[in-house]
Write a structure and sequence with these properties.
By secondary structure, the protein is of the alpha+beta class. The strands form three sheets. Strands 10, 11, 12, 13, 14 and 15 form a six-stranded antiparallel β-sheet that branches. It has a five-stranded antiparallel β-sheet with strand order 8-7-6-5-9. Strands 2-1-3-4 form a four-stranded parallel β-sheet. Strand 6 and strand 7 form a beta hairpin. Helix 1 crosses helix 11. About 5% of the residues have low confidence.
């Protein structure tokens, strides 16, 4: 008699991520997972049983989880990511204890999750591992905290940096990100999706805008600083069809399995900010034409994932330099696998499988999923939910929008 694993997924019961994971389980002939919501975890109501295997997924699509974590009523607000991080990491630590006490098993390392959701710590770990990353004056646990605009200006002047990305240390989906550049005459401008209200509150917008007044840029940075800031050199990116290009590469159990090119006319390539999927074959050809190898580009991503050996699946943001000759890692995302419809790379072992099916196949090799056949009702529902999520300019943390 076949003994099937008893799976639990902690996530949004009505979200796309859980739906895609359940589809992957069914396609592999495995029973569906029991779903535990993040609000149940955060309110201490979650219970587990001996023999269960527990997978953590993003709380980012759950409005109630976002409210409990950030403490704000409007999901479009930027502020609150520092509170989100404190509450989220505490909840994951407590969850790990509850799971262990019950005799169940947690798939990923909660300590690594705490590092992955702090851009300063994650950047420092990658740098220590020899992974190429943009220069950063805030990298690592010993780096100075940035208390506001005046401190940021001093930090940039000392490092000789004139073009930088200023990011929320615990943000995602480009929330609170500013691409800041200055010239020798001291003029400053910032490109961002942050919208500043008349009362000084900050909101995520679907429109990328440019601020050219230092006073306004300073006000935004000062409002973001209490949540924690990470600063890194703005590297000139390679282009595709005249648009800046980077890649999201999914690494599962140490192997790069999926990749997508992201292009944009703005410094941010996120799809919800006007980015678009690019041509992967053309990117591979450009790397070869520049004298490089596609395998080496994927190797950089695998080295980045190896810095987090207790996390089975990560999404690596790979930044190709101008000319497609060199690469750096921008970020490593704990929940960077939401890439609907994307199939595995040739030779990766995940051919014909989406990112969720590939994770199921890696964890349960005897039950390899069949190639995905979209369920029309579920696909339509997911598309409707995604549209509503983007229109509402929802959650600023805990998810990764490509």
């Amino acid at each position: 008699m076949t003994v099937h694993p008893r799976l639990v997924v902690v996530g949004d019961p009505a979200g796309r991520r859980v739906a895609f994971f359940q589809d992957a389980l069914r396609a592999a002939g495995l029973p569906g997972a029991r779903v535990v919501s993040w609000p149940d975890v955060l309110c201490g109501r979650a219970r587990f049983a001996a023999g269960e295997t527990v997978r953590l997924d993003s709380p980012g699509e759950d409005p109630e989880a976002d409210r409990l974590l950030r403490g704000v009523d409007d999901p479009a607000r930027v502020e609150g990511s520092g509170r989100w991080y404190t509450r989220f990491t505490a909840a994951v630590s407590a969850l790990a204890g509850t799971v262990g006490d019950a005799g169940a098993a947690l798939v990923d390392d909660p300590g690594e999750l705490a590092v992955l959701f702090d851009k300063r710590l994650s950047h420092g770990r990658l740098r220590a591992a020899g992974v190429p990353v943009p220069e950063s004056p805030t990298s690592g646990p010993a780096a100075p905290a940035v208390g506001g605009w005046d401190e940021l200006r001093s930090l940039l002047d000392a490092a000789g940096l004139r073009r930088v990305f200023v990011k929320l240390a615990h943000g995602s989906s480009a929330s609170g990100v500013l691409a800041v550049e200055s010239n020798g005459a001291g003029r400053i401008q910032a490109t961002t999706s942050v919208e500043r209200g008349p009362d000084g509150r900050l909101f995520n917008s679907l429109r990328v805008r440019r601020y050219t007044g230092e006073r306004e840029i300073a006000a935004i940075v000062d409002a973001l600083a209490p949540d924690g800031l990470h600063v890194e050199r703005w590297l000139p990116k390679a282009t595709q069809d005249g648009r800046a290009a980077d890649l999201r590469v999914v690494v599962i159990d140490g192997r790069a399995t999926h990749a997508v090119v992201r292009t944009s006319r703005s410094p941010m390539t996120n799809l919800h900010l006007g980015g678009a999927r690019g041509d992967l074959a053309a990117a591979r050809a450009a790397i070869v034409a520049a004298g490089g190898r596609w395998e080496d580009a994927l190797g950089v991503c695998e080295r980045a994932a190896a810095a987090f050996p207790g996390t089975r699946c990560v999404g690596v943001d790979l930044l190709p330099a101008t000319g497609w000759r060199r690469f750096a890692v921008g970020e490593v995302n704990a929940f960077g696998d939401l890439l609907p419809g994307l199939k595995g790379l040739p030779g990766s072992g995940a051919e014909g499988l989406d990112t969720y099916a590939a994770q199921v196949a890696a964890q349960f090799p005897a039950a390899r999923p069949a190639p995905e056949v979209p369920h029309p009702e579920r696909t339509s529902a997911a598309r409707t939910r995604a549209t509503r999520t983007i229109t509402a300019r929802t959650s600023t943390t805990g998810t990764s929008t490509t």
